[in-house]
Design brief:
It is a single chain. Helices cover about 55% and strands about 0% of the residues. By secondary structure, it is mostly helical. It has a domain of about 190 residues. The longest helix is centred in the last third of the chain and has 31 residues.
């Protein structure tokens, strides 16, 4: 029986020959390109050639307002690259162009945070090193004052974040239409860039040669340079915002910004670089 079946299958048929009868067959061709997803047929390809399109997450929906309790809300404040931060620091050190126009609609908190942190470490390092040099020249024992680190942190973080928030609040109170909180914080944060080189130069190696008066003059000059550059940077970029409110109030706030910078520069000089060699000599 099996041999007879194999013999039937071994028979060759030329399907191209005319008049060949293949008989009845149950073969049936299906169309797999239809839009019907039932009956085990393939679905249509998703846009972009994918066979599956992932559902849109509510967190990724650009039309959905972000919650302050999600990390996605804070990511928008750090949407900068390293090159962007360096470029903004250069503009802060040499304020010849409008910084507000440079950053456009992308102010950030990344630069202000790391600049303030860098200034804190630099102030503590330079003040400690300058004090050690002065004590060594005077032949006195130097004791590290780690309280300077806490003072630098309180000064820099407070001035970088609290002062612009207060400024923004006052501007909103006087119904300024151009006041933006993040922009104010960004301006004050990048204005602190100048204090990194100021702190380094204030170490004043001249003190090694026992010239405390000259060293003190150098420190005052450094503080003055930091004051002038940071104040010009802030006034240039805050003036259009301050000018959007009543004229008399605008002038008062502009003077307050300048006075705030002046007080800040004096605090940096007096807290971190106010000593001389004579202060470290044991009586």
């Amino acid at each position: 029986m099996a041999s007879a079946q194999r013999a039937n299958y071994d028979q060759l048929i030329d399907v191209d020959a005319d008049g060949v009868d293949l008989g009845e067959t149950d073969l049936e061709f299906h169309d797999f390109h239809t839009g019907d997803n039932s009956q085990g047929k393939y679905p249509n390809a998703a846009p972009g050639g994918r066979m599956y399109e992932a559902p849109t997450s509510l967190e990724n929906d650009p039309n959905r307002p972000l919650s302050v309790w999600t990390i996605h809300f804070y990511q928008q404040f750090f949407n900068v690259e390293t090159n962007d931060v360096f470029q903004r620091c250069r503009y802060a050190l040499y304020p010849r162009v409008s910084f507000v126009e440079t950053i456009g609609d992308n102010p950030d908190l990344y630069g202000p945070f790391w600049i303030a942190s860098t200034v804190i470490i630099t102030l503590f390092f330079s003040s400690t090193l300058a004090g050690a040099i002065a004590s060594h020249v005077a032949g006195a024992k130097y004791e590290y004052n780690f309280g300077l680190l806490s003072a630098a942190a309180a000064l820099m973080y407070g001035y970088t974040f609290i002062v612009p928030i207060v400024l923004w609040g006052i501007l909103k109170y006087y119904k300024s239409e151009h006041a933006r909180l993040l922009e104010c914080v960004t301006l004050y944060g990048y204005a602190n860039t100048i204090w990194v080189p100021v702190a380094l130069v204030s170490i004043s190696p001249i003190e090694i040669f026992n010239f405390p008066t000259v060293s003190n003059v150098v420190r005052w000059l450094c503080a003055a340079v930091g004051l002038v550059i940071s104040t010009i940077f802030l006034v240039r970029n805050l003036y259009p915002v301050l000018n959007s409110i009543e004229a008399k109030t605008s002038k008062v706030m502009l003077v307050a910004v300048v006075i705030g910078q002046l007080v800040f520069a004096f605090v940096v000089k007096l807290v971190f670089f106010a000593y001389s060699i004579d202060d470290n000599v044991d009586n």
